[in-house]
Amino acid sequence: MARLFIAVETPRTVAAHLVGIVPAARGIRPAPAAQVHLTLRFLGECDAGQAERITAALDALRAADFALRVTGAGRFRGQQGSVLWAGLAPCPALDALYGALTDALQSAGIAPERRQFRAHLTLARCRPTVPDALLRDWVAAHRELAVPSWQARRFILFESRLDRHGATHEAIGAWPLMAPDDAHSMAGVPVSA
């Protein structure tokens, strides 16, 4: 079984800058810059048959490329601690890709996500022992966070492997996002990761 997810990459320079603003404090684990990405869909543990159906569904997907822009920061709270994140500006083309991806995955037998899609980049994971005031102050200081926008030109199917140091992500396949005029006339063609 492989633990799979679909994501859009973040340029290394943007990711490094964002991870660089994470507070350096005990109990806060910044994401490796190479792993900062926009998760479109976490698929979880998939067997070989499911992985093949997912890949076939992605092969048939057509979508336009789009610009992504960071706007603000925040945190998700949970019983295991908090997640610090950078938000992404609303983007109709991203919403269209997410909808098309949901439909394609349903055709492959993957149920739709129950949670609402919230476009963000995970920057760090924080243990419950991290002082709440530190995290509140960080979010307040980065409410107006902005970095140069970038063009999303492909989406990637990743396998995530967990070990005691965290997760490592390996690209299994990548599919291009086309210029808007081409997206209507060409099928999604896998490209090498």
UniProtKB/TrEMBL annotation:
InterPro entries: Cyclic_Pdiesterase, RNA_CPDase. GO terms for molecular function: 2',3'-cyclic-nucleotide 3'-phosphodiesterase activity; RNA 2',3'-cyclic 3'-phosphodiesterase activity. The keyword Repressor does not apply. Its EC number is 3.1.4.58. A motif (HXTX 1) lies at residues 37-40. It is an enzyme of class 3 (hydrolase). It comes from the Bacteria. It holds the Pfam family 2_5_RNA_ligase2. The keyword Hydrolase applies. It catalyses: a 3'-end 2',3'-cyclophospho-ribonucleotide-RNA + H2O = a 3'-end 2'-phospho-ribonucleotide-RNA + H(+). Keywords: Hydrolase. The active site is at residues 37, 120. Hydrolyzes RNA 2',3'-cyclic phosphodiester to an RNA 2'-phosphomonoester. PANTHER family: RNA 2',3'-CYCLIC PHOSPHODIESTERASE (PTHR35561:SF1). Belongs to the 2H phosphoesterase superfamily. ThpR family. This is RNA 2',3'-cyclic phosphodiesterase.
